[in-house]
Design a protein that fits this description.
Rossmann fold; 5 helices; about 20% strand
Length: about 190
C-alpha cells in the first residue's frame, strides 16, 4: 500500500473512531437499549470497516440488522430488507443506525423515504454520510475525482453523494447535524 493510501486509511480509522464514540455517547443520553443496524457491515480487523457499528452495538441488544446482500459473518440477527421500506412495525426499536448508507439508496425521493422509515421504526436514530465536497471520497479513497460527473457516472453504487445543504433538506427540522461544509462526513441525530 502506498504512503498516501496508508495516510488516508489512518485518517479514516481515526475519523470513524471519533464518530462511533460520539454516536455511542449520544445513545447513552437517549437511554437506548435496542438497536436496528441498517446496511451494517461486520467489522474487519485492521480495516476501517465496522468501527462505528462496533461502538454502537457495544452493551446494547441488536434486534436486527438489514441490508441488500447476505451477511454470513453477522454476529446478530440479520435479514435482507430495503431501508426505504423496512418490514418492521412502528417503534420497533429505540435506535436505528445507518452509517454511510443514505448515499447508496437512490435519488432524493429514495433518500427521503429512508429518513421517513427511520423516523417510523425507531424513537431515535443516527444517519451518517460522506461529505460530497470533501477532497477525498471516503469509500474509494480517491482524491477530487468524485467531483467529476464522468467518474460518478461509472460508479452506480454512489447514487447521490450529499452536500451539507442537501443532507439537511432530507431531515426532520429538529434533527441535529454534526459536521460543517469542510468535514469529511456528516452525522445527523434525531430523537422524538
Amino acid at each position: 500500500m502506498n504512503p498516501l493510501r496508508r495516510a488516508i486509511r489512518a485518517f479514516s480509522i481515526r475519523s470513524r473512531t471519533k464518530k462511533g464514540a460520539f454516536i455511542s455517547e449520544w445513545m447513552d443520553h437517549q437511554e437506548v437499549q435496542t438497536v436496528l443496524m441498517v446496511g451494517a457491515l461486520p467489522s474487519e480487523p485492521g480495516s476501517n470497516i465496522g468501527i462505528v457499528e462496533d461502538a454502537v452495538i457495544r452493551g446494547r441488544e441488536v434486534k436486527m440488522g438489514i441490508g441488500l446482500r447476505p451477511q454470513p459473518r453477522s454476529i446478530y440477527p440479520y435479514m435482507i430488507a430495503d431501508a426505504r421500506k423496512m418490514p418492521f412495525e412502528d417503534d420497533y426499536v429505540d435506535f436505528a443506525l445507518a452509517n454511510a448508507v443514505i448515499e447508496h439508496v437512490g435519488d432524493e425521493a429514495d433518500q427521503r423515504r429512508m429518513v421517513e422509515e427511520h423516523c417510523r421504526v425507531a424513537r431515535c436514530w443516527a444517519i451518517t454520510t460522506p461529505n460530497r465536497w470533501f477532497p477525498v471520497e471516503s469509500h474509494t479513497a480517491v482524491m477530487f475525482l468524485h467531483w467529476l460527473p464522468s467518474w460518478r457516472g461509472k460508479r452506480k453504487e454512489f447514487s447521490r453523494l450529499l452536500s451539507l445543504r442537501e443532507f439537511r433538506e432530507l431531515l426532520p427540522p429538529n434533527a441535529e447535524i454534526k459536521g460543517s461544509w469542510w468535514s469529511p462526513t456528516f452525522t445527523a441525530t434525531f430523537a422524538r
